[in-house]
């Protein structure tokens, strides 16, 4: 096995791009898997990719999902399971068949949990699987548990709370705000249409979380881990920080349209104690710094 080799499934998304940068800084060669060079729904293609790469690490970031402003499209329902579950199963089966000792990291979502206004959510918190996205994500978590317990595979699951970076897509509310502020000089008379500003979100910096994901595999720490900041902020607070960074008052530019949100956003705040204790980790980027970094990156384009 090439002990300094990693394979990233979903290398063109936010997490994949950041992990590529982290691995490059650490001198770890990386094989990138995306929709253009491998159909992860096909076992033979996945097996071949892993056999050729002989990776010590596999990071599975590929996902089919929608933002809070998008409706779940019925014609795409099968993709939730093909991308979020079957692709994971194909990877696990290939790792098992090849007996490479590969360490596997899968990204799940905080949306699997039942919202809780009073307590932070930990790895044992009550679940609420009420859509195809959360069902498919949880199914892959159970696959990772099963292959770890029954076949001895080194599988780790990161249950990700909201994490942001300059690579976040424009369909997400955070990047909508960032892009509006960064491009303010071009649209001084425009209005930013948002939904419920009182929504509370546990936000963290994606680079902090990806560094933690790497450390878990590097140290071969298996199991399920909450990735969160441990604190909540409203979308209004996000607006306040973003607009004030450029000397603006968000109230002058933001208009509210509740109909712009297709999914009710319930409060979920994560308890990252297990992650902190396992790898001596703590978030390095504050809420405010995360937003300012995103704006700076957008303005530099």
Provide tags for this entry.
single chain, alpha/beta, globular, 6-stranded parallel beta sheet, Rossmann fold, 301 residues, 40% helix, two-stranded parallel ribbon
Brief sketch in words of this structure:
It is built from nine helices and twelve strands.
Description:
It is built from 9 helices and 12 strands. With about 300 residues, it is an alpha/beta fold. The protein has helices at about 15-25, 45-55, 75-100, 130-150, 175-180, 205-220, 235-245, 275-280, 285-300, and strands at about 5-10, 30-35, 55-60, 105-110, 155-160, 165, 190-195, 200, 205, 225, 235, 255. It is globular, with a radius of gyration of 19 Å. The model has no long low-confidence stretch (mean pLDDT about 95). Helix 3 (about 75-100) runs parallel beside helix 4 (about 130-150), helix 5 (about 175-180) packs parallel to helix 7 (about 235-245) and helix 7 packs across helix 9 (about 285-300). The chain has a 6-stranded parallel sheet with strand order 2-1-3-4-5-10, with helices on both faces. Strands 6-9 form a two-stranded parallel ribbon. It has a two-stranded parallel sheet with strand order 7-12. Strand 4 (about 105-110), helix 4 and strand 5 form a beta-alpha-beta unit. Helices cover about 40% and strands about 15% of the residues. The N and C termini lie far apart (about 40 Å). The protein has a domain at about 5-165 and about 205-230 and about 270-285: NAD(P)-binding Rossmann-like Domain (Rossmann fold, 3-Layer(aba) Sandwich).
């Amino acid at each position: 096995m090439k002990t300094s080799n990693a394979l990233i499934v979903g290398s063109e998304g936010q997490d994949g791009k950041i992990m590529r940068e982290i691995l490059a800084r650490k001198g770890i060669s990386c094989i990138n898997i995306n929709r253009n060079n491998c159909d992860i729904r096909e076992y033979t293609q996945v097996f071949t990719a892993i056999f050729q790469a002989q990776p010590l690490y596999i990071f599975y970031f590929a996902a089919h999902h929608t933002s809070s402003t998008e409706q779940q499209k019925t014609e795409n329902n099968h993709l939730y399971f093909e991308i979020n579950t079957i692709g994971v199963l194909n990877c696990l089966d290939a790792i098992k068949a090849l007996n490479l000792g590969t360490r596997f990291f899968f990204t799940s979502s905080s949306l699997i949990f039942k919202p809780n206004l009073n307590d932070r959510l930990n790895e044992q918190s009550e679940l609420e699987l009420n859509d195809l996205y959360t069902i498919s994500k949880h199914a892959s978590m159970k696959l990772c548990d099963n292959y770890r317990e029954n076949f001895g595979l080194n599988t780790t699951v990161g249950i990700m709370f909201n994490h942001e970076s300059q690579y976040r897509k424009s369909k997400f509310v955070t990047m909508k705000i960032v892009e509006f502020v960064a491009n303010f000089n071009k649209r001084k008379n425009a209005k930013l249409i948002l939904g419920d500003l009182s929504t509370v979100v546990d936000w963290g910096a994606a680079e902090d979380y990806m560094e933690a994901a790497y450390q878990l595999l590097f140290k071969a720490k298996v199991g399920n881990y909450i990735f969160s900041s441990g604190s909540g902020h409203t979308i209004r607070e996000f607006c306040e920080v973003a607009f004030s960074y450029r000397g603006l008052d968000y109230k002058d530019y933001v208009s509210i349209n509740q109909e712009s949100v297709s999914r009710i956003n319930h409060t979920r705040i994560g308890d990252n104690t297990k992650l902190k204790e396992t790898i001596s980790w703590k978030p390095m980027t504050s809420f405010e710094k995360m937003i300012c970094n995103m704006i700076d990156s957008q303005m530099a384009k």
